[in-house]
Design brief:
By secondary structure, the chain is α+β, with helices and mostly antiparallel strands. The protein has 4 helices and 17 strands. Helix 3 runs antiparallel to helix 4.
Length: 269
């Protein structure tokens, strides 16, 4: 295990300053984000979140290339831990091997690593993780992947979205494809949640934005997706980054500070 350093003299529940760094090594740094919520950022710009209740803790995503992640998490919380994946892409599930049990939506089984030997539990819309004094709800938000989910803390007005709505730029050009209307439906569902009281979206690659997204972000994303679906998007451009699970000729449409990368052959797939 790589040397652990940068551990603050930390007592859980004490008056640590929000965003104070509590752990750092060559792979990962962890900071306090909100009360009883920590954010981990990996050296390859991935993000994981730790939420602690009175009785249990929840790890959302596992990042990549974080040696001994299970032991690092135990430096943050000693509560019984549940591990849930927002979706099954390697930059979010790369360290599941450190954990004997995980939770995921069955829609992403086609993407899930076959090398994992632990117990796989399936979640669905409405599944709740009761952490003791804190309840985290699963909401299915397909588009980026068929099984993309978000984790909603209604009491705190926060949610953790993985790549469901991107980190300023959402990728919808990846296999297995979903039609643009599926993503629009997910955007509308997220907008409704925010109109009902969710104020902060913590995305899956927080490193790039360093802030939670708000309702205006989701409205812009939804409207841009509609323009792509209807063929009215202005000046889309070829997207210059190709990945093994992506389409051959991706395009990107932008509006201000947001972007949607998509497969023009599968907009209405």
């Amino acid at each position: 295990m790589k040397k652990l350093f940068g551990i603050a003299a930390m007592v859980l529940g004490s008056a640590l300053a929000i965003s104070a760094q509590v752990f750092k090594n060559d792979d990962l740094q962890i900071s306090l984000l909100e009360e009883c919520v920590w954010i981990g950022e990996t050296r390859d710009n991935g993000t994981l979140y730790i939420i602690e209740g009175n009785e249990k803790a929840l790890l959302i995503d596992t990042g990549t290339e974080c040696d001994s992640l299970d032991k690092i998490i135990r430096l943050i919380t000693q509560k019984p831990l549940q591990v849930v994946l927002t979706h099954a892409h390697h930059d979010h599930d790369g360290n599941i091997g450190f954990f004997s049990e995980i939770y995921i939506h069955p829609g992403d089984t086609v993407l899930f690593p076959k090398t994992y030997r632990g117990k796989v539990n399936f979640v669905k819309d409405g599944t709740r993780f009761d952490l003791g004094g804190k309840s985290i709800e699963v909401v299915h938000m397909p588009g980026h992947t068929p099984g993309s989910i978000i984790l909603v803390d209604r009491a705190a007005g926060s949610c953790y979205t993985g790549d469901a709505f991107g980190s300023g730029q959402v990728w919808l050009q990846l296999k297995p494809y979903s039609p643009m209307k599926t993503y629009i439906e997910s955007c509308n569902r997220m907008i409704k949640l925010m109109e009902e009281g969710i104020e902060k979206i913590y995305c899956g690659h927080y490193f790039y934005v360093k802030r939670p997204f708000d309702l205006s972000h989701m409205i812009k994303m939804r409207d841009l997706a509609i323009s792509i679906k209807e063929g009215t998007v202005v000046n889309p451009q070829p997207f210059d980054r190709k990945v093994s699970i992506g389409c051959d000729n991706p395009m990107i449409a932008t509006s201000g500070d947001i972007g949607i990368v998509y497969d023009p052959e599968h907009v209405n797939y």
